[in-house]
Structures are given as structure tokens and as C-alpha cells.
Amino acid sequence: LGIGIVLDAQDKTSEGLHYAKKAVDLEKNDPEFWYIYGELQQKMQFYEDAELSFKKVIELDPENAEIWLDYANLLFEQENKNGSLEILAEGIKHHPQNAELHYRISACLMSIGQKQEALSFLQSALKLNYEKHNELFEYLPQLKENSSITDLIDSYKK
Length: 158
What we know:
CATH superfamily of the largest domain: Tetratricopeptide repeat domain
Number of domains: 2
Number of helices: 10
Strand content: under 5%
Structural class: mainly alpha
Order of helices and strands: HHHHHHHHHH
CATH topology of the largest domain: Serine Threonine Protein Phosphatase 5, Tetratricopeptide repeat
């Protein structure tokens, strides 16, 4: 797997993917290997394969909050916003105290026009960790222009 990571860092992702595949074939139950394999697949735009790899990571290690975010992001980038929302909601069930999941689901909900539900999740996220609110804007910069969001964030400023 290490060779695959090094090759990816050298902009040889296709070759790196080959070594990552060998690694998951040898260590079928290692979630970290599957995670890296999925990331490389996504980078190569093998989205369906990346989705399967991310599902495998969740199966092996549902306590890894990062995989829920990355899997949801993969779906969101493919315009599967409902799928992204489902993954984020499931991630929140596993990690109810993870502010990043709450911020991300809030952004996704805003992107499909579900403002009230989005603001509810944003409020939860702000209660969990106000300091991470900029992640909302990193994910969807256009939300900076939404006064409902900025007003709610400002109301939590200390």
C-alpha cells in the first residue's frame, strides 16, 4: 500500500491504484486499506468502484467519522444529493456528537432547498462546535451569501 501512496504523490495515481488493489486483496478486512483504495478510485474518476470501497470501509469501521463525510461528498459531487443526505443521516446516527457531519448535512439540505431542516442541523452543529462553522462555507462557499445562515451563526458568536 505504501508504494501506491508514494506513486499517487508522484502523480502516478493509476499505478498507485494497482498497488492499492494488491493491498486490499491481501488484507480484505483492513478498513484503512479500503479507504485509501477508494480515495484513489475516486481520484481516477472510477466513482462506482470508489462507492463500493467506501461502503466496505463503513462495513468494517462504522466508527470512522471521516468515511461518512467522504462517502457523502463522493455522492454529492456526482449530483446524488439524496444519496449524500442518506449517508450523512446514517453517519449522524453513529456519530451524533460530530459537528462536521451536522455542518455537512446542513449544507446539503440548503443545496436542495430544505431551509428549515438545514437550519435545524446548523443549530445542532453550532451547539456541538461553533469553531468549525467555517467548514460549512468551505464546502459550499455560496452559503456565505445566505442571511439566514449567517444570522444564525452570528447568534452563537461568543
